Amino acid sequence: MAKRVYQSWKGNNKFLLQGSLIFGPDARSLFFTVSLIVVPVVIFCVFVARKLLHKFPAYNAGYAVLVVVIAFTIHILLMLLMTSARDPGIVPRASHPPEEEFSYDNSSRTEGGRHTPSLTFPRIKEVNVNGVMVKVKYCDTCMIYRPPRCSHCSICNNCVERFDHHCPWVGQCIGQRNYRYFFLFVSSSTLLCIYVFAMSALYIKYLMDEDYPTVWKAMKHSPASVVLMIYCFVCLWFVGGLTGFHLYLIGTNQTTYENFRYRADTRNSAYNRGCLNNFIEVLCTEIKPSKNNFRAYVQDESARPPPVSRARDIEEPDSSPRLKVEDDHEIGGDLLKISGRRNFEEVDVEMGSRNSNELHGVLTESELMMNSETEIPVAKTEVKSSSRGRRSGSWDLSPSVLAASSSVNEGDIPSQKPAR
Fold first, then answer.
1. pTM for the complete prediction?
2. Cys staple from 16: which of 21, 35, 200, 349, with CB 3.0 to 4.6 Å?
3. Which portions of the chain have biased composition (kind: Low complexity) (predicted)?
4. Which is the catalytic residue, given 150, 167, 173, 235?
5. Averaged pLDDT for residues 311-319
């Protein structure tokens, strides 16, 4: 049975509802984050907001205190869910490295001085972004060149577009497709802290105006208000500072990752379009659709053969190894002429016309070349053109021809190893 994409996902994400919701590997932290929001709100509604229902008799405005805090809480939980349960902008992985970027490095040589080209491709490329050259890096895990502003999250094990950071409080990467919801979650939490703190202080003020004239007595009568004020004050330093920091990042069109990594870089940013346009880009533009269909079925790709080395097709400068290869072609040409003759007498004439010492020298040279791993091919397989226009190939000699040629100079030719 064919698997769906979320079932064979190579990242560290967790899925719910058959791939409809995608979370980070630390999604359990969501329960802790939700409790930090819901528990104080419940305490506020029971011990503070309920006591303020009749403190504003005009138009029953006291009910607005309860409605506002409940609406804020629902909004924050929705923003939290939209941040942590959606694709942050994951770039799909490739099944193989980009072959169009392959190149052969001719700089390496063996001990004999012969070129041994190796298959390589650039690790870094430069692309033009708004007139500025930006470097993009190759990701070994995803086997892609990361788009500009993209980075690989080591926790989720994915490349994420416009990567900001991985937030443990929401259990998800913050990227191009959920940054807006993350900012709304943080800023709304800041406003909620301010609202609960103000309403709790207001309730203490009402108690002091009635039967508890001092602050100490009022606080003893409503300890829940005091706890809420302390809790909101502490949280305000965290979420309030985070809101201010991200307001700065949005105004300058930076990400948290870029701000920390390229802080010392004084060059103008390629993405800064002005404060107003930056806010419009982040908060008002349409969010791009996901590049991943997690519910789709996995399509099996046919196995790709490994890249074929073209070491023999690359032209080399004239050197002693090159000369040996050309001598090998000349010896092979002589053998081809011998094998093409059908009359044994013509073979005897041809072989007899050669000086035995010359033939002995040729065979000795052939043996030396075989020992240096330059083997004379013996089976006709393929004929191709080399860089100098010569035709190279291999030849199959019949046993009768070999027997005839060996009988001519039986006493002069030393024993040889059988052909492979």
1. 0.68
2. 21
3. 392-408
4. 167
5. 41
